[in-house]
Amino acid sequence: MSDVPPDLTWIRAAPPEATGPGPWIEIAFGEGDDGEAPVYLRETRDPDNVVTTNRRKWDAFVLGVQAGEFDHFVEGVELG
To answer: For 1-80, where are the alpha helices, taking DSSP H only?
Structure first.
């Protein structure tokens, strides 16, 4: 995790009513506001294991989620 800035602000992707440690995904945005600015992802159970992408790819992923492009991954999965 040496190339991950130590002062990132991590945002937890969890429902507002969620309690406990998760596991949850956390996202942090690195410096910069262009498409190549870094975006960091980690899981609360293993915070030292960080995956890095860039803002352009992250934005494309979020738009795909909003458009339902990944809904087939959760077919049959029960929430709760």
So the answer is: 55-66
**Average pLDDT of 28-39?**
96
Residue 79 lies in a domain: no
Within a domain: 23:
yes
- The C-alpha torsion from 30 through 32 and 34 to 39, rounded to 10°, is 0
- The pTM score is 0.84
Residue 4 domain-assigned (yes or no)? no
Contacts of 29 (CB under 8 A, 6+ apart): 8, 9, 37, 38, 39, 40, 55
| DSSP structure string for 53-73 | EEHHHHHHHHHHHHTTTTGGG
